[in-house]
Amino acid sequence: MIKFENPNGYIEVTNNYFSNLVGRAAQSCFGVTGMVNSNPYQSIKSAIMNKGAKENLDQGVVVKSVDDVLTIDLHISVSYGVNINAIVESIVNKVRYTVEEATDLKVSKVNVYIDALN
Known about the structure:
- The chain has about 120 residues and is of the alpha+beta class.
- The protein is about 35% helix and about 35% strand.
- It is built from 3 helices and 6 strands, in the order E-E-H-E-H-E-E-H-E.
- The chain has helices spanning about 15-25, 40-50, 85-105; strands at about 1-5, 10-15, 30-35, 60-65, 70-80, 105-115.
- The strands form 2 sheets. Strands 3, 4, 5 and 6 form a 4-stranded mixed sheet that branches. The protein has a two-stranded antiparallel ribbon with strand order 1-2.
- Strand 1 and strand 2 (about 10-15) form a beta hairpin.
């Protein structure tokens, strides 16, 4: 849970919301073929989750908050033959813009890990 104060009071945002927001933004970028499980919890969750249920958007996303500043880790798979630098730059810009517009929180770092080529 990420909690911050604004002039009207306190706002609490769940990590699940941030993970889904970031996952949706990252998957919409050209060249990204999917998200990759980043820890054992996500692996177990995706194994148990029913395939007919909604897509697991928080897969491969880790959001950390320190003093109202966010650090985001993404584990992705990309298409073979595309420019990885261009994809990573696009993802970083899109994720940073999406999160800052939706929450007014500063994103200090977006770490992108390419775990697979498809």
